[in-house]
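Review session, final week

We close the course with one last complete record, chosen because it touches almost every idea we covered. It is histidine kinase, a protein from Parvularcula mediterranea with 466 residues. Go through it on your own first, then we will talk.
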Amino acid sequence: MDVQRNSVNVKPPTAEGRAPLRRNDLLVAAGAIAAGLAAALIAGVLKPLGALLAGGIAGTVLLLRWLVPTPQQVFAPLSEEATEEVERLQRYSILLDALPQPVMLLDAQDRIETANAACFRMFGEGIEGANIAGIIRAPAALGALREARHMDGAQEAEISITGPNTLSALFYVSPLEHDEAEGEMIVMIRDRTEQRQLERMRTDFIANAGHELRTPLASLLGFIETLQGHAKDDPDARAHFLKIMQAQTERMQRLVRDLVSLSALELNERRLPEDDVDLCEIAAVVREMMAPVAERANGEIVPGPSNCSIRMIGDRDQLIQVAQNLIDNALKYGATGSTDRARVHVTVGSGPDHAFEAASSSGDSPDQIAVRAGCAPSDLVYIRVRDEGGGIARTDLPRLTERFYRTDVDKSHPQGGTGLGLAIVKHIVGRHRGGILVESAQGEGAAFTCYFPPRPGPESDLPAGH
């Protein structure tokens, strides 16, 4: 915050308030003048009239020296008090800049007189002198400001501030109460985005969990009643029902795990990752981790490139989860009709690259992702998971990353799908400032390509499109 110009009421010192010249100094000066004049008379240098005139001038000078202060005497107290006032204002400025909430001072015309550092970070450096209506485009905030002026009291309003990240905030405004305020208002903005996210996540969690758990719980209750009834003495029926109950219980476990994971991702979505990771190393690790899963599913993960390196800034565990979820989906739903065996390709690369010659697509294009990331499309890096199945219908492509959306419910439930795997992928990729491009070619398969901004610095040693 800039220190404002304040009027400092400092009066020049009077003769009574100044420390007088020492009496001995005046006597010595007067004696010296008298001795000099006497010597001049004796020597005949001055006539009596001239000596009288010279003595009068010298006396007048001494009198003025006594009565009139020097410039140093006048301005020294003024300079000291002004310095103290400036230092006091600087302390206030440091105090306001230390506040995490944006604070601004408005004049009687709702123009911003001054603001603290948090306010400049939120709205930019050039806001001083601008009308607040052009800075905060929220009718509720302007209404609270008018009400505060009309009622001469503090007002609050819940507002949304649009920008790169939309913020939920509390807008507080109050008139200043001092004689020289002249219509000035103090405004404070408190970011409540995380609080609103927590409330929304809690509501969504309860609604989604209730909806998805209702069916397996009802199924379990029905089987328990059956086992308590006529099937309690039938070993074959008990074994059959218990196997189904185990499958439903495992499905509920996966559902709760995915819901908790999704809620945690949403909570940290605005915090950018900071680790230096290698996409090639992540792809190799996930291939090895998912090999037993592919074997149990009668599938195959096709080996990708080795001895390569393509680096980015990311969260290693979350990127591993992205690859795992995509491979798991491909193994479940990417089997070919002729062999009923899924072949999954995991590749990494840089720059825009299409999985198929001609395909339907949905999601973010490399150009859109590059604009958001502030880099050239050729600088983007990606990890892709592609299957050789029958492909995905064009009408389903835009909705694949929605929560609990399934293209084939009858096929999804036996496979143990929760409908949250791709939603989790979308949130992780979004946290990394990336985007997902989904491509599908009927009879050739489907591909999910996750593009990310490159790591700042030297380029990787992986050629484009590898």
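Two points worth writing down before the exam:
Confidence is low (pLDDT under 50) at residues 1-22, 459-466.
The first strand starts at residue 103 and ends at 106.
Good luck, everyone.
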